[in-house]
Amino acid sequence: MAPLSPTARTTLGRLAEKGRTDRAELHALLDTALVAHVGLDAGGYPLVLPTAFAVDLDGPDRDGTLYIHGSTAARWINAARGAKVCVTVTEVDGLVAARSGFESSMNYRTAVVLGEARVVEDADERQHALDLMVDHMVPGRAATIRRPTRKELAATQVLAVPLHEASLKVRQGGPDDEDDDVADNPWGGHIPLYRIAGAPVGDEGSRGPVPDDVRRRAEQLGASVEADS
Amino acid sequence: MAPLSPTARTTLGRLAEKGRTDRAELHALLDTALVAHVGLDAGGYPLVLPTAFAVDLDGPDRDGTLYIHGSTAARWINAARGAKVCVTVTEVDGLVAARSGFESSMNYRTAVVLGEARVVEDADERQHALDLMVDHMVPGRAATIRRPTRKELAATQVLAVPLHEASLKVRQGGPDDEDDDVADNPWGGHIPLYRIAGAPVGDEGSRGPVPDDVRRRAEQLGASVEADS
């Protein structure tokens, strides 16, 4: 497995001390995060849109494959077909309350993946990618829901980006204040931020208990779920 | 004030029913969210990076001004100077556990702002923008910390994007399942997601209580803060 970052484009310049070269950390972030921001050239101007994603470390690309998908009617995904894209995944972990504006910051983890978005044509790879995306949101759910119809599959585009050319940047902890500022101002620190889930909410057609896959996911994200809710 | 979206580029195509045209909703999202993803052409390929931001609704642009900043040494912000950029701000509000993969989704709010990034040269506008960015993270904090030095200001670039050409897309609630799927599968719904704060953590140079600005911000984000912590 190649170390991060194999090219000049993904070798961090500034704040390189925040760069990480451990692919396991990249994979952990991509496993935790829910949304990717995909950037592309929309025809003379850059466009950035949020989208669901999933990673297959055993995918066809050497260092794993990142999948995104969208409607065949969506302009952005048609612009992304076969094009250079940037897929950026960020988790915000805290607010850094420094003693100067210059050192004020946020704690975060950010992965930047650059590559060409390959249109996934193979039916098995497409279905696997779609299942991975459902399971990325609610692990195990792909096996519990209705299989896609031909019409649904025809309306869905799946794109694959190799997980090869990637960088990971992480900031954590308190501020990097100057000694003089610490002497002058008695407090600097950070506010940790977390994502938590509330209890699952059934729609108006729901009857019976929250299914196990949904309950487990909500609990994993910190929700308290009544057994009979 | 112009309604959203004034141009064809920001007029939503697909899922237009999720589009909003109320600028107050856009402003509320930009007020809540902490991070923007900025997309630009990095020289033949798109690049998307997360960054802090702030909005000045009374800024020099007709519908308000969105500010971002970065180090004068950062490659991305030099590529953004005077260039077309896309600033996308997303909050994830839930996981939608549908009865099919096709209807599986997330709840979210996304603002997409397109425009040219103007380099802010005026000293007063620069300082105001930097204060807004500090206060966006911790309201009131800009007034409580050390003012920037000349050296710090020289190392910081501030860019302004007009809040004119913008779109807002919102998804909320449960799945849009087909009637047949609801009949076949007794449960569909969503898992609400929230961001919450933990108690502020002072750095090793801290002595004395958490200052009011930091305590209020943590409490506003759901933290329980001891008066003497």
What is the secondary structure topology, with strand pairs?
The structure is a homodimer of 229-residue chains.
Chain A: E1 19-20, H1 23-32, E2 36-41, E3 46-51, E4 53-56, E5 65-71, H2 75-80, E6 84-97, E7 105-116, E8 118-119, H3 123-137, H4 150-154, E9 156-162, E10 165-171, H5 179-184, E11 189-197, E12 201-202, H6 212-220
Describe it.
2 copies of one chain form a homodimer. Chain A starts with 18 loop residues before the first strand and ends in a 9-residue tail after the last helix. Chain A contains 6 helices and 12 strands. The mean pLDDT of chain A is 93. Helix content of chain A is 22%, strand content 34%. Chain A has 2 domains: 188 residues, Electron Transport, Fmn-binding Protein, Chain A (Pnp Oxidase, Chain A); 30 residues, no CATH class. In chain A, strands 1, 2, 3, 6, 7, 10 and 11 form a 7-stranded antiparallel sheet that branches. With 229 residues, the first copy, chain A, is an alpha+beta fold. At the A-B interface, strand 2, strand 3, strand 6, strand 7 and helix 3 of A face strand 2, strand 3, strand 5, strand 6 and helix 3 of B.
